[in-house]
Amino acid sequence: MADFSDLRNAILNGDEKLAVQQIQAALGQGANPSELIAEWMIPAMDEVGRLFECQEYFVPELLLSGRAMKAALELLRPLLAASGARPTGRVVLGTVKGDLHDIGKNLVASMLEGAGFEVFDLGVDVPAAKFAEAVAKQNPDIVALSALLTVTMPEMKKTIEALRQAGTRSQVKVLIGGAPVTQDFAREIGADGYGDNAGSAVTIARSLLGK
Ligand code: B12
């Protein structure tokens, strides 16, 4: 594969303008959008996380890198979606209450759309009751929840409880993901599936619907 380390570095350095230029250049060279994301963009964000952990990066740097990643992903999103086929199922998706991270969620949305799912994205900081309302309104097959913070993971359980209280839990499959989430946690809170990346979100969503 060609070397797209300039794209990786643009995201790492939080340079939104350069990241967008690098995406345009990479696409001009015929780069594969999924490979750009998996091989260069996600590793850049992983490195940002590592630098944050060892206190070389602080919140402003996280924010700038996050913006550069989002802007780069926006350009790839239509290309990912275009690769899909007919509607495979309906998904209500969101980042749980208290959590503002949406880069991974947006990637999951793009991959699901690319695989032919119809996605209703509720955004970030979504309270359990709002998920329950959206399920009643949209009648989805799957509710997909994202959490990036250890402290917001309990909101996933609350959301499942809210669906139970609304009487809609048995009508949907609940799929969860996000960096601190695990298969064990999914089992513990009674979710139906767990995916550790956007690609597996698609595979698991399909298998939850028996496809
Ligand atoms: C960018 C970033 C931010 C940006 C977010 C910008 C945005 N629009 O999203 C900003 C600056 C806002 C931010 C803020 C904070 N952050 Co932050 N952030 C990150 C960072 C560096 C990258 C996250 C990311 O986008 N990764 C790239 C994407 C593609 O990966 P992903 O999100 O994991 O998603 C993939 C999978 O997890 C999975 N997935 C995700 N969701 C779902 C859902 C389903 C259904 C499925 C199946 C799969 C799935 O698929 C995705 C694609 O492959 C991480 C470090 C890291 N490496 O994770 C820290 C990190 C998550 N943040 C952290 C912290 C502490 C914070 C703050 C509390 C900092 C502060 N002191 O203010 C705040 C909290 C704000 C809030 N209330 O949410 C910690 C969390 C520690 C913990 N375990 O709780 C981390 C791990 C950094 C660290 N190493 O300490 N952050």
Give a description of the structure.
The chain has 211 residues and is an alpha/beta fold. Helix content is 57%, strand content 12%. The protein has a 5-stranded parallel β-sheet, with helices on both faces. Helix 8 links the parallel strand 4 and strand 5 (193-195). Helix 3 (33-53) runs antiparallel to helix 4. The longest helix has 24 residues, at 59-82. The two termini are 32 Å apart. The model has no long low-confidence stretch (mean pLDDT 92). Cobalamin is lined by residues 42, 45-46, 48-49, 52-53, 59, 62-63, 66, 70, 98-105, 107-108, 144-146, 148-150, 175-180, 195, 197-198, 201.
Fold topology:
Elements: H1 5-12, H2 16-28, H3 33-53, H4 59-82, E1 89-95, H5 103-114, E2 117-121, H6 128-138, E3 142-146, H7 154-166, E4 173-177, H8 183-189, E5 193-195, H9 198-208
Parallel strand pairs: 1-2, 1-3, 3-4, 4-5
The structure holds cobalamin.
List keywords for this structure.
single chain, about 210 residues, alpha/beta, 5-stranded parallel sheet, 5 strands, about 55% helix, binds cobalamin
Q: Note the gap between the termini.
A: 32 Å
| Beta fraction | 5-15%
Q: Helicity, in percent? A: 55-70%
Q: Please tell me what the overall shape is.
A: globular
Average pLDDT over all residues: 92
Q: Main sheet?
A: 5 strands, parallel
Q: Give the helix/strand class.
A: alpha/beta
Please tally the helical runs, counting DSSP H or I stretches of 4 or more residues.
9
- Enumerate the strands of the largest sheet in spatial order, edge to edge or round the barrel: 2-1-3-4-5
**What's the gyration radius in Å?**
17 Å
List the ligand species: cobalamin
**Poorly predicted sequence stretches spanning 5 or more consecutive residues:** none
Number of strands: 5
What is the succession of H and E elements?
HHHHEHEHEHEHEH
